[in-house]
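Course assignment 3, question 2. Fill in each field.
Student: A.L.
Task: Predict the tertiary structure for the chain below.
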Amino acid sequence: MSDAIFIRRCLEFVLGVEISQVHFRDSSSARQLRNRQGVGKVRHLSGKLLWVQSQVQSGSVEMIQMPTAYNVGDIGTKSLGRKRLFALMNELGMVSAETGQPIGQEELEALRESYTNSRDVTKLAKTILRLTTVLGLGPTGSNARGQCEDHSVSSDGNDTLWIWLSILLLAVA
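Answer field:
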């Protein structure tokens, strides 16, 4: 960040325009540390972090959370699979030396679709959890196996109605 601030200030001096500085991070713990003021309960914290907090608080630097799947910084720091590597290379705008075509276009589209699908499934799961909590459809604590063995399983039509209504409401939402 300090190097980026230096380069930004040099460019602002030479070009005579104001430049905004944005850092993309994929670590949720880093996001929590930069948004608080001071060290809190964290032990063995570097003094650099307090400087970063002051830069973010002053508005001199903006930090944006990004999904780990799109972090191009992972290219040189982690062992990546072929598909993800090609997708990230496409994000950087790399092209094939032989053909001049962009590298990893299909892989990037598959990565975006996969990320969107997983995000949608997570939203759906949270909605179902909230809906079941509101309607009181949580676990009852009864022993279903014992009821099935006794052949005394009864179905209340009113409970079934509520379940179908909740499913309909979920589908509408």
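Instructor remarks: Strands lie at 22-25, 62-65. The first strand starts at residue 22 and ends at 25.
Grade: pending
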